[in-house]
Write a structure and sequence with these properties.
The protein has a single domain, classed as Farnesyl Diphosphate Synthase (Orthogonal Bundle), CATH 1.10.600.10. Helix content is 75%, strand content 1%. It has a two-stranded antiparallel sheet with strand order 1-2. Helix 8 runs antiparallel to helix 13. By secondary structure, the chain is mainly alpha-helical. The longest helix is centred in the middle third of the chain and has 28 residues.
Length: 320
Amino acid sequence: MSFSSEIIASELQIFDARFKDYVKSNVPMLDRIMKYVVKTKGKQLRPMFVLLCARLCGNINESTYRAASLVEILHTASLVHDDVVDESLERRGFFSVYALWKAKISVLVGDYLFAKGLLVSLDHDEFRILQILSRAVKQMSEGELLQLEKSRSLNLDESIYFKIITDKTASLLAAACAAGAFSTSKDERLTENFRLFGEKVGIAFQLKDDLFDYGTNTIGKPTGNDIKEKKITLPLIYTINNSDSKLRKELIYILKNQNRIKQSIDYVIEKVKSAGGIEYTTDKMNQYKKEALLLLDEFPDVAARDTLASLVNFTTERNK
């Protein structure tokens, strides 16, 4: 499915200029890295959510652009640090900062971005927006650590899995939507409404990512990658919890001891598909998407709402 951001095209251009300006540095090496980061940044989904939620609640203003920039800066910082943790050499089809500048510089670059993000808000006394985003960063860290802890013991509890993805992935999108709403409305009820909306979209987004692991090699990440990294995602949780004891033991043994053997990974993928793990996860993803879209019903049927709904659909129908 394609998505058109035409309704906020001019606002995205302004955001892009603001973002480039905010991450500039007087340190030559750091400025080179920042230019590389800007050049290789992704689809800008989170800034689009900020802008569209802001548009639904009022008139986009300088506070909105700062909120969108803060979201993108914090997201970028977290990715730079993630690549160090995962020792990942690639990001969005380009070499990662970690691959080009190694761990020490990458950690410092992430720290620099976090500090710049704080100053974007503090320099303009936007404490509420900073509070919204700081809570998300805290949740992201907690989610990552919880996932690392549970991957060692092969967590098969669905409620813990949803706690992990709510904190690790959905929290930043929830904060993006809340910050956008607050920037134009200063209304706490609307802000919470959009935080909940973003959280539901973020969960649906992560469930789509989980499904990619059971797709084909034409998608945006290698098939079976989560299995290799012992990330226990919903399709696998469902399959193991709904298998007989023999298959359950087999799958757990593979995850613990053969998670990097292609033939074993293919076997797990086949069992997940035949057990209905894909359908179960797809149903859950569509449920969260539906709940998110229902939260938009109170707004007039205007172009911004339709575009935001279209963006939600794009997050669950994308192919990478």
